Amino acid sequence: MEGRQGVMVEVPKGGLPQAAGNNPLVQLQTKFKEVEGRFREWLSKQSIPVEAAVVTSMSAAQGAVIGAFMGTLTSDVSSQLPPQSNLAPQAMASLNQAQALAVGPFAQARNFAVMTGANSGISCVMKRIRGVDDVQSSMVAAFGSGALFSLVSGMGGSNVAANAMTSGIFFALVQGGIFKLGQKFSQPPTEDVFYAHTRDMLSGLGLQNYEKNFKKGLLTDRTLPLLTDSALRDVKIPPGPRLLILDHIQRDPELMKGRR
């Protein structure tokens, strides 16, 4: 198509690209995050019993769906198990555990609902009481969920209390190991820890491309209050970004305290 000054402008066959803000999927995701954020904010202001009840119910519902799906996969296995007559006590106990796991969708939905609901509910209470979400809280929640899962699923057999205790300990050890592994792999590199505030500042100013300049010059978070025009010039940051950075530091009361 020809413009007023004779310049040819090509228009894609599908028309002009749709703006990201008009994308229905993006709008739906944004709306969902807003609703989720408001819900979490409301839930954090409630009493411990209310928050625990809501969290337990929601997690139990999710666990029930997962359990029902698992039950459809394992329902046919129970029909293939051998009869219980003339079996040794140890073999009988193993068979009872296998039958407890190879049940139908409704029973598995119940089992998983109890397990996931108890885990989330105990974790919620522990976090509100202790104020932290650490490996101890995670292991306590896993112990409770494992013990309850053993009770409702029938895995305990005749020795219910001992098997519930064993299942709880096993769940707690597994959950503790997973928590520690998650912490290990989720922690940022040591170098990045020293540039957390720097990264936030540059991102807020739209200057995130200059983070490598800060790292190259070893301008860490501790040096932010001490930054000068010459220091930024030494790490080859252009005049415009230098002015924005220095102006931001002067306007930040926390950073200005470091200059005193």
Automatic annotation (TrEMBL):
Any one GO molecular function term: protein transmembrane transporter activity
Keyword match Protein transport: yes
Localization per record: Plastid, Chloroplast inner membrane
GO BP term, pick one: protein targeting to chloroplast
First-listed, main subcellular location of the protein, grouped into a coarse class: plastid
GO CC annotations on file: chloroplast inner membrane; TIM22 mitochondrial import inner membrane insertion complex
Pfam families named in the record: SAM_1 (PF00536), Tim17 (PF02466)
UniProt entry tagged with the keyword Membrane: yes
Domain SAM, chain residue ranges per copy: 200-251
InterPro entries in alphabetical order: SAM (IPR001660), SAM/pointed_sf (IPR013761), TIM22 (IPR039175)
Membrane topology designation: Multi-pass membrane protein
Alphabetized UniProt keyword annotations: Chloroplast, Membrane, Plastid, Plastid inner membrane, Protein transport, Transmembrane, Transmembrane helix, Transport
UniProt family annotation: Belongs to the Tim17/Tim22/Tim23 family.
Description of how the protein assembles with itself and partners: Probable component of a protein-conducting channel made of HP30-1, HP30-2 and HP20 that mediates the import of transit sequence-less proteins into the chloroplastic inner membrane. Interacts with CEQORH.
Protein name in the entry: SAM domain-containing protein
Organism listed in the record: Acorus calamus
